[in-house]
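thought: fold this chain, then report.
action: predict
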Amino acid sequence: MAKKLFSLIVVPHNKGKHKTITLTDKRVKILVGIFTFIFLVLTAFIIDYFTMNVTRKKFKELTEENTVQKQTITKYKVSFNKLKATLKDFESYARKINVMLGVESPEVLRELGVGGGGREPDQGISSQSYLQDRGLAHMNNVNQKAETIDKNLNSNMRILDQQSTKRAHTPSIWPTTGWLTSDFGMRDDPFTGKRTFHYGWDIAASYGNSIVTTADGIVAKTKNEKIGGNTIIISHGGGITTVYCHLSRFNVKPGQKVERSDVIGNVGQTGKAIGPHVHYEVRINGKAVNPFNYILEEE
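observation:
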């Protein structure tokens, strides 16, 4: 059987002779295969080139995004550390207040730890997720501590308010400027010479000297009696009352609110008295107690 032959005639544009190239069927197939291979390689190269361009672009975007995220994370870390430092200062402040108030610090104010049993990065969880879980755990701990400190400080403020109110209504100063001539307790009565119990302090002072209330309260009574002369009784709440006797005049009326150091009257010699002075008493639930225990300031 005769072989199939293919003739390729090359005709030049000039006057040169034409050329005839004769190819067998086998050679044609080889050439077609070579050209097909080259075409496929070029096509794959072009596709890969454009794919790599897209990939490079995405990689660049991811790199930039990662850089921005790192910067953001760094800022968050700085802010978080500042927050932790601030909370530590508040915690220390709260503990100092607790000590001042005589209140023990709650157990929850101690360092909050993260318990064991947590998963490690190689136990079915990625390192990134692990770090995120740890970050959230720290954030939750700090948030919990902040809430606890806030509650503790609010409680302390309530205690301070209560104590402040209590202090304001507790006698703590001298009722007038003078000198103590008769103390609380047993003494020789200046009129009879007999041993009797003296229920307050006698403070000698210049006639007309100002007499002040020793704590916040309400004027319960103003009266003139045989022994005490012009007398003022002030109720301070909590069963505490103070009594001021031998006044020359009143500067307050029953039912009037007064604050510590307000002038309520003047030193006199009314009633049973030898010389101008003020007889001062502190009573708890109606029982006289030593005023010395309620003097925090020296006049």
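thought: worth noting. Residues 25-101 form the longest helix (77 residues).
final: tokens above.
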